[in-house]
Design goal:
Rossmann fold; mainly alpha; five-stranded mixed β-sheet; 2 domains
Length: 611
């Protein structure tokens, strides 16, 4: 008998070794596929954008402002001071971005500056940081897909993530804004919630959620979806889930408390509910306390009805208490924005508007088609889950939460699409088993975001008249993009430092690429600067002059096409902006040379000195 037990023990040990080797082999395979795809995507995009990227002209205005924030921090600005002092000078304007997203690019810049110089170090950081996050996202998505559908779905999920437009646009070289890191943190939380229900898996989920919310509240709906799924599983399964619920509470509440003690910004207003504020931190800590109490009380809450009732009372009661203490949250993140800006600025930010506010069905398909496919996949997965529903629910819940977000703000697709990919991979893997070519091709196309991205351009080309012979017109290039090309900002930077009155389209580039300051910029906390900028440009020249004096501006910048979104020439035909659009600058505007740039820049000190 002893010999038989020894043989059985040796066999089990060998199985564990084989299992470990298989896991490592799968991990290496996933890593190689992810690295290969990310290398292809990143190198091709970097090569296309190199004329601008090499000058540190980044793809999006938020990336430029993020780079400016990192430079200011590395240059000596206090860790807890998030103010951008070259926006709305001299006091500056508070930003709603935390420093958490700045850690990795700042570290990369610090470590490589002695070898490459500041420009080279910044170029390395902005070029490598987003692709590294994409590799992390792909590996997490592969792990989720494998857990849900077994191994064949994992490589499918990696490939689908490489095709998952528009989410892939967050990971291209230069995209150092915080949304890509938020995708990774939410994926970490989702993966932890489908692991074995232990205190450790709950702790990891809670830590990831705390990081995600500290970075920005855009992920709040997905986090609520994940917590709601964990809560529902606890309601049904009781004590088997109490350890995970306790770990989730400890991670979410504990790390938020650490952030509150170490990363609280100097500007800490009670009347804002747009990022890491007293309202958001109180809500997170309060709900974490509720989760901890529920986990501890599980042995006495016998039966799903009791658990559901007490849990709902605790969660809803805490939310109502926070809303009572911080009523500004009832107005949403833009509650303190001037009504004129809400109508004429915020409503023209695509991602801040509902999917129903887009100007055509084909545009909705291009931007949200994959998100809609993900919602269908989530419902399909839940319908066939059976006893595996606790495994499916967290991912499906977060996807469905993203679907609700796009009803109000299109930005929900950026998180919803990566969360959808593991579910879509399961559908593709299932269809592949049939061996039928047509359904297989349809499944791949329906799960590939780039397929939806081609639809608007294809429809546009089929329905629009062809350009005149010999003239090439790109429908994707706006006047503002043309103003941003070439050596524009280097030319602007050569002039003495001053305050530039410029539309929001270019303000972040002025701050991030030159040594100048700007009055307005596309950030909702800059209420005073933004409304002053609009009043300046949309008033007649004589009425604009005192506004320029008040802000002590030195220059005015304008790009043909600015303010077209508000029908400038029809609504404000006698405004300064209309005069500049017609190339009729007021007397006293001194036009400054900017080479071949379409951007127009004037020195205006003499104009301001006029009576």
């Amino acid at each position: 008998m002893a010999g038989t037990k020894g043989i059985e023990g040796d066999g089990m040990e060998q199985q564990r070794i084989d299992s470990g080797q298989a896991r490592r082999a799968r991990w290496r395979r996933d890593l190689l596929i992810a690295l290969a795809l990310v290398a292809i995507l990143s190198f091709s995009r970097a090569a296309r954008d190199w004329p601008q990227l090499s000058r540190l002209i980044l793809p999006d205005a938020d990336d430029m402002m993020r780079l400016a924030q990192i430079r200011d921090w590395l240059g000596g600005q206090a860790f807890n001071d998030w103010t951008q002092y070259r926006m709305a000078p001299p006091a500056g304007s508070p930003m709603h971005w935390s420093r958490l997203n700045d850690f990795v690019p700042a570290a990369m810049i610090m470590l490589s500056t002695p070898l490459l110089g500041q420009h080279g170090a910044e170029l390395v950081a902005v070029s490598l940081y987003p692709p590294l996050l994409l590799v992390a996202a792909m590996l997490l998505i592969a792990s989720i897909a494998r857990k849900l559908w077994r191994d064949p779905a994992a490589p499918v999920a990696i490939v689908l993530m490489a095709l998952a437009f528009p989410a892939t646009s967050l990971f291209v070289p230069g995209r150092i804004d915080h949304h890509a890191l938020q995708v990774v943190t939410v994926l970490v939380a989702a993966r932890a919630l489908i692991a074995r229900p232990t205190g450790a898996s709950g702790l990891i989920a809670g830590l990831a959620m705390a990081c995600s919310l500290m970075i920005g509240l855009e992920t709040l709906p997905q986090v609520v979806g994940l917590i709601g799924a964990a809560g529902l599983i606890w309601v049904v399964r009781g004590t088997r889930e109490s350890a995970r619920l306790a770990g989730l509470a400890a991670g979410l509440g504990g790390l938020t408390l650490v952030f509150l003690l170490t990363m609280r910004p100097n500007y800490w207003p009670n009347n804002l509910c747009d990022s890491f504020t007293p309202a958001s931190s109180a809500a997170i800590l309060g709900e974490s306390a509720v989760l901890a109490l529920l986990a501890g009380a599980t042995p006495w809450l016998r039966g799903p009805i009791w658990r559901a009732g007490i849990g709902a009372v605790g969660a809803i009661g805490t939310a109502l208490a926070v809303l009572h203490a911080y009523p500004a949250c009832l107005a949403g993140p833009y509650g303190q924005v001037d009504p004129f800006l809400l109508k004429n600025f915020i409503t023209h930010i695509d991602e801040a508007n509902s999917v129903f506010a887009q100007d055509s069905v084909v545009r909705v398909i291009g931007l949200a088609g994959l998100m809609i496919a993900g919602i269908v996949a989530a419902l399909w997965a839940l319908a066939r889950a059976g006893r595996r529903w606790p495994l499916i629910l967290p991912i499906a819940g977060a996807v469905l939460a993203s679907g609700l977000v796009i009803l109000a703000q299109l930005r929900g697709v950026y998180l919803g699409v990566p969360l959808s990919v593991p579910l879509l991979a399961g559908f593709v893997a299932r269809v592949r088993k049939t061996g039928r070519a047509v359904p297989m091709v349809a499944a791949w196309l329906g799960s590939a975001g780039v397929a939806y991205a081609f639809i608007p351009d294809t429809v546009d080309r089929l329905t629009s008249p062809p350009p005149p012979p010999g003239i090439a017109i790109s429908r994707d290039v706006t006047a503002q993009i043309l103003c941003n090309r070439g050596d524009t900002w280097a030319a602007v930077d050569r002039y003495p430092a001053g305050v530039i009155m410029a539309p929001t389209n270019m303000a972040s580039y002025l701050v991030g690429s030159t040594h100048h300051a700007t009055v307005g910029a596309g950030y909702h906390r800059n209420n005073a600067g933004n409304i002053a900028m609009y009043r300046f440009f949309l008033s007649p020249a004589a009425a604009a002059r005192p506004i320029g004096r008040l802000w002590r501006i030195d220059y005015v910048a304008f790009c043909p096409g600015d303010f077209e979104e508000i029908d400038l020439l029809e609504r404000f035909p006698h405004s300064l902006a209309a005069d500049l659009a017609r190339d009729r600058a007021p007397a006293g505007f001194e036009r400054l040379a900017l080479g071949n740039s379409r951007l127009r820049l004037w020195r205006v000190r003499r104009w301001l000195d006029q009576p």
